[in-house]
Amino acid sequence: DAGVTQSPTHLIKTRGQQVTLRCSPKSGHDTVSWYQQALGQGPQFIFQYYEEEERQRGNFPDRFSGHQFPNYSSELNVNALWLGDSALYLCASSDGLASNSEQYFGPGTRLTVT
Amino acid sequence: RKEVEQDPGPFNVPEGATVAFNCTYSNSASQSFFWYRQDCRKEPKLLMSVYSSGNEDGRFTAQLNRASQYISLLIRDSKLSDSATYLCVARFSGGYNKLIFGAGTRLAVHP
Question: Of A20, A34, A77, B83, which one has the greatest count of Cβ atoms within 10 A?
Fold first, then answer.
């Protein structure tokens, strides 16, 4: 039973560029949430996708956008990268939107913006 | 004020020690609470849920005090393998399963 997978594992980009990160949820899960974890901080909620729609969004600018595909996989896109976007980006999947559904995290994508 | 606040650490303790982590939350609408463990450069993993009645899992005991909006984690008989960052997490009612993380407390257990 495959867990949550993310790609790529590491990425280096230059300020102003755009990046796309990918996530495949755990088998049987249909909900994907994205989190940003800066160095020395806890993960911060970016947004959540269910039924191919963004259902909830954290306090992140419109430069951060996402998509969910019919197979439940998801992408996180960040435009006009800033140095401050350097972080570990974590994807978490769960079964439905129910607030008691456990979220399982993927290994993350480490983004460095230079 | 951050929604979930934790002792900053780091906590440096010898093997066999008992160590306690504290956490407070500001939103009284918080519904559920958890402790996650995160190893260096890895993803967070659920350690245990936290209930008002208190719950224990082996050497780990978690406690929730809703009146004080306070959460704790006690680790007894610390092992070298307990070295990690411990994240206090809240989930709000009606919050579509959105997790709010504290900044984490780093624990280093030494021989």
Answer: A34
Picking from A93, A112, A114, the residue whose alpha carbon sits closest to that of residue A39 is A112
What is the number of alpha carbons within 13 Å of residue B1 lying toward its C-beta? 8
Residues of A (1-30) whose Cβ lies below 8 Å from B: none
Query: Is A107 in contact with B93 (Cβ distance < 8 A)?
Result: no
Structure tokens at B67: 């009146």
In DSSP terms, A76 is beta-bridged to A21, A66
Q: B4 near B102, Cβ under 8 Å? A: yes
Nearest to B51 by CA among B77, B72, B24, B20: B72
- Chain A residues 86-105 within an 8 A CB cutoff of chain B: 88, 90, 92, 94, 97-103, 105
Residue with token string 């963004």: A54
Out of A58, A97, A108, the one facing B43 most closely (by C-beta) is: A108
B44, B45, B46 member nearest A43 (Cβ): B44
Across the interface, of B4, B42, B99, the residue whose CB is closest to A103 is B99
Tens of pLDDT along chain A (114 residues)? 679 999 999 999 999 999 999 999 999 999 999 999 999 999 999 999 999 999 989 999 999 999 999 999 999 999 999 999 999 999 999 988 776 788 999 999 999 999
In this complex, is the C-beta atom of A48 within 8 Å of any C-beta atom belonging to chain B? yes
